[in-house]
Amino acid sequence: MIRAMMTSASGMKAQQKMVDTIANNIANVNTGGFKRSTLSFRSLLYQTYAEPGAATSQSGMNPTGLQIGSGVEISGSRKGFRQGDLEPTGAPFDVAINGQGFFRIRLPNGDFRYTRDGSFHRDGNGTVVTADGYPLETFPTVGSDVIDISVAEDGTITTRNSDSDVGTVAGQLGLFRFANPEGLKAQGGNMFSETASSGTAGQQVPGTTGTGRLVHRHVERSNVEVVEELVGLIMAQRNYEVNSRAVRASDEMLQQVNQMIR
């Protein structure tokens, strides 16, 4: 009975983390480039009372054995990099990725971060930056005399300084890919950092070697589907309730034992 309480408690803890994960997904339903998270579970150790295949007689064996599990735990979380919807904004420095790849951002300390959020701006120095002021790597400086800018699907950046200007190629916006993007570490602020699990970032030309194409004046929305999250929330809640009932049943059985009179 004590074992049943601890086993059910492990289930309640796991479902609580599931609810926490779903809540974070729903909270970021309007966050640009956000990727939903899912949890994976695994069973805890089993106590073996009888080994499967153990001899029961000179010629017989136990066909199944007897093992009692001790509950469940979270084995890991995973980011799902399914493509989000592309939303037109009309902003001259907004760029969305249609396919695989990440933008690379440089932090003030020189470290790199990677993001799918393509909402960028031009600062007073002509540098294209994120909302936090971090510069976008491989994007050229855009002078104050530039009146129009366009970004092609392959990342080619063309600027115009006047209405009669046919345009000048100013540079090319590159994307970065990882062998295992699910191994990236979420850092908040819509950014990720590379890890030993993700592998080293490799720069690619958009639209080549499986890398996504760029869509100018668009941003990628979150890939969270609210209906799916609500269904998962209901399931997690019901699983939590069932585990709590198992705790209650174990407590009632223990109470009956304590009340036994010789």
Tell me what you see in this structure:
With 262 residues, the chain is of the alpha+beta class. It folds into two domains: 2-42 and 72-81 and 224-258; 86-220, no CATH class. Helices cover 23% and strands 29% of the residues. It has two helices and 19 strands. The strands form eight sheets. Strands 7-8-16-15 form a four-stranded antiparallel beta sheet, with no helix packed on it. Strand 11 (148-151) and strand 12 form a beta hairpin. Helix 1 (2-27) runs antiparallel to helix 2. It starts with a helix and ends with a helix. The model has no long low-confidence stretch (mean pLDDT 93).
Which descriptors apply to this entry?
2 helices, 262 residues, 2 domains, alpha+beta, three-stranded antiparallel β-sheet
DSSP summary: helix tally? 2
Helix/strand-derived category reads alpha+beta
Q: Count the domains.
A: 2
Low-confidence stretches: none
For the secondary structure, the number of strands is 19
**Mean pLDDT across all amino acids:** 93
Summarize the structure.
The protein is α+β, with helices and mostly antiparallel strands and 262 residues long. The protein has two helices and 19 strands.
